[in-house]
Design a protein that fits this description.
Layout: E1 14-16, E2 46-48, E3 51-55, E4 73-77, E5 82-88, E6 94-102, E7 114-122, E8 127-133, E9 146-154, E10 185-187, E11 202-203, E12 209-213, E13 224-227, E14 236-241, E15 247-255, E16 266-271, E17 274-279, E18 288-296, E19 301-308, E20 312-313, E21 321-322, E22 325-333, H1 338-345, H2 352-363
Antiparallel strand pairs: 1-9, 2-5, 3-4, 4-9, 5-8, 6-7, 6-9, 10-12, 11-14, 12-13, 13-22, 14-19, 15-18, 15-22, 16-17, 16-19, 20-21
The structure holds calcium ion.
Calcium ion binds next to strand 13 and strand 22.
Length: about 375
């Protein structure tokens, strides 16, 4: 780890940044419950303004007891306060930063007051500052945001398979997720079009979608999927390569995350000249169904996009946002034999491999 006196580069590539969970004790110990007047020392971080280390179990505004997602400590940023540290990265690579944030008093509309988020950036230098600033001006300085669990992951864009025009079709490539955090990660609107915490995909609306894992949610394929939690305001999309005037087939898994989300669940799917909504009506033994849409491409690139038709909430608290799950998105050239493709799709996902080989051979 470069502690032997040599100048060994330690790249931040995956996992917590230095003291990203704020559990490292300052040199003179953690401050006592009484708020000290002096600046708080937080190992590995540079602080500006009123930054406090808070502890799980502390009383926060409104008499609520603070619960920290992992470990015992987190930081609260007062008005205009800031924490920063320098990350060592690889110039030209894209990274996602995952962090948990809560507002005090906890907003009951949010899940348990805490939500993990992820944003992405392309490294323009080998050293980049990571800065969290509270730009809010609260009347009560105790109402500043609390931040915890800051992690980084270098993003890799997967190779595109020959039989599918969709990049990262199963959402398996994405931001860092903590194994024991059960809330998924919210992906807000992309800061710029070029980078996304979900390689290949864009969150192009003003509300977030949730990236979920199979440890805590029902996921149709692999270990990751996307839950559309913000109705029409949470849109994921991708531009896929197509040939104009050719017939294509879009298929995707439409599922229930098994997170007590109140039905009905439905997605609106867009592909080329098609825009249709699909209700979740699976077989009794499954948490998802496979939906297919035939469309004609109009250009060299075709936008495929999904949003939730409804604004769903969980049945247990009637306030936490949830929604339909989308996974395993595929687009392929379906030649001219539209009817034959439809018949084969009716046989279900077990025949995927067969179907794809068949379509490719038509293409030849
Ligand atoms: Ca998946």
């Amino acid at each position: 780890m470069g502690r032997n006196g040599g100048r060994v580069h330690t790249y931040n590539t995956e996992g917590l940044v230095a003291n990203g969970d704020f559990e490292t004790a300052p040199s003179n110990g953690f401050p006592s419950e009484a708020i000290s007047d002096g600046p708080t020392e937080i190992p590995s971080w540079i602080t500006k303004g009123r930054v406090e280390l808070v502890s799980s179990g502390d009383k926060v505004s409104g008499g609520m007891i603070l619960i920290v997602p992992r470990g015992l400590k987190a930081v609260r940023l007062g008005n205009d306060a800031e924490i920063s540290q320098e990350l060592t990265v690889e110039k030209g690579s894209t990274y996602a930063v995952t962090f948990s944030a809560a507002r005090t008093p906890p907003d009951i509309v949010q899940l348990q007051g805490w939500d993990p988020y992820s944003i992405s950036f392309e490294a323009e230098k080998d050293k980049v500052p990571l800065i969290f600033t509270n730009t809010g001006m609260e009347d009560d300085p105790e109402c500043g945001p609390i931040i915890d669990d800051i992690a980084i992951k270098k993003l890799v864009t997967p190779d595109q398979p020959k039989d599918n025009a969709v990049v990262n079709s199963g959402f398996e490539f994405g931001p860092w997720m903590f194994q024991n955090v059960s809330l998924g990660v919210l992906l807000p609107t992309n800061l710029d079009e070029e980078t996304s915490p979900l390689p290949g995909w864009m969150v192009e609306s003003n509300r977030a979608v949730r990236y979920i894992d199979s440890n805590h949610f029902a996921v149709p394929e692999g270990k990751r999927a996307v839950e559309l939690v913000s109705g029409k305001e949470g849109i994921i999309s991708q531009m896929v390569e197509t040939k104009p005037d050719k017939l294509y087939c879009l298929t995707f898994s439409l599922g229930h995350a098994r997170d007590k989300c109140k039905e009905p669940l439905a997605v609106m799917a867009f592909a080329g000249d098609q825009a249709q909504n699909y209700h979740y009506t699976p077989d009794s033994n499954s948490t998802f169904q496979v939906v297919s849409v035939n469309f004609t491409a109009k250009a060299e690139r075709t936008r495929i996009a999904f949003y939730s038709v409804y604004y769903n909430t969980r049945t247990d608290d009637m306030s936490s946002l949830c929604g339909p799950v989308v996974d395993d998105v595929r687009v392929w050239f379906s030649g001219s034999s539209r009817n034959e493709v439809l018949v084969l799709l009716g046989l279900g996902p077990a025949f995927w491999a067969y179907l794809i080989i068949l379509v490719l051979s038509w293409d030849l």
